[in-house]
Write a structure and sequence with these properties.
- The chain is mostly helical and 230 residues long.
- The chain is built from ten helices and four strands.
- The strands form two sheets. The protein has a two-stranded antiparallel ribbon.
- The longest helix has 22 residues.
- It is globular and about 45 Å long.
Amino acid sequence: MFIPIPPRERPIRRWATPVLFLLLWGCFVAASLLPPGEQRRLLLEWGALSGDLRSLPELLASLRDGHLARLVAALFLHADWAHLVGNLLFLLIFGAPAERAMGPWRFLALFLLGGAAANLAAVLAIGTPDRLIIGASGAVSALIGAYLALFPTARLGLVLPLGLFLQFVRMPAAVLIGVWAGLQLVYTFVGPAFGAVAWSAHLAGFAVGGAFGLVSRAAIHRRMKRVHGF
């Protein structure tokens, strides 16, 4: 009698999400310990600025002098605790399952390149010159887009305030993320009324992440089959 023995699943070390979490947190804490003047100088030197890179010569020059690196460095700078905690929360919700599916290196590439592309879109879209663009929102939006492309039928938990009570409900991720994406689109045009937020970076990051997830779904499926044995 032959008994099929499933292959032993190799332990997977998911290190990219906690590393990014600690880096984002550590960079903010280190910056907050600086004097106010030094903090402002740090943001202006390493954050992305609207009005830059509006022509091909400027883009080529930025490649030569390293100025383009600000699009990535800006991901690790945040304005305040609320800005940071919001991004960290979404990183944990969508980053952990995305890394589990695509692996740490592909996950890191999406975070950094998707975030840089989102910041570049904000640099080009915002009409007011020299507006500071910082934060990991664009990179996190790329993870949200990839999550939707990889797990279109997933369900997410939602806490709804119903009078004096809080009700936990589970809803399709496509519905919740669709509502979120719709709000980003609306706020792109009426954003100044809701605070200094680069909504266009959210949209661009979401689009980049969704495209990345769709293009790499076959490779990610092969990876999951190889690693998990199904």
